[in-house]
Design goal:
- It is built from seven helices and no strands.
- By secondary structure, it is mainly alpha-helical.
- It has one domain.
- The longest helix is centred in the middle third of the chain and has 17 residues.
- The protein starts with 11 loop residues before the first helix and ends in a 6-residue tail after the last helix.
- 37% of the residues are buried.
Length: 138
């Protein structure tokens, strides 16, 4: 997987995820990326998908990152968030936390890039904080 920075969208896996999302008409794509058990080891591709899906959830909840890819805001406007969005938020928080906890094992993806693993962990922590800071019903 090509990686050119430490941001959530700074890798081929995330860009492919966004392209697939923009081609889809359903939120199922995001829900599937958040379906794994956060207590189990994650591989790098799944971790990238989970963190990317978490950014989509954060954006849908009004807490987008500053580098949200072109087209995502329009997709969100055209595809109203489902009633399961609060549950997706909870899953996203758990998975982002798991990715940060497993960052050393997943780190090969970010170690050789500007900012490296430490910068990715900072970005993921900020995402987790944005998601946790939302007061939503469950």
């Amino acid at each position: 997987m090509g990686t050119w920075g430490s941001g959530v969208f700074d890798n081929d896996q995330a860009i492919d995820f966004v392209e697939d999302l923009l081609d889809s008409d359903e939120w199922d794509f995001v829900e599937e990326a958040l379906a794994a058990d956060p207590t189990q080891p994650l591989d790098a591709c799944f971790a990238a998908d989970a963190v990317t899906a978490a950014e989509i959830v954060a954006a849908a909840l009004g807490k987008p990152c500053s580098d949200l890819p072109e087209g995502v805001e329009e997709w969100l406007a055209d595809h109203p968030a489902p009633g399961s969005l609060p549950k997706m938020r909870k899953k996203a928080v758990a998975l982002v936390h798991a990715v940060r906890a497993q960052a050393a094992e997943l780190g090969a993806m970010w170690e050789e890039r500007p900012g490296g693993l430490e910068e990715f962990c900072r970005v993921a922590s900020e995402l987790e904080e944005r998601l946790q800071g939302l007061d939503l019903p469950t």
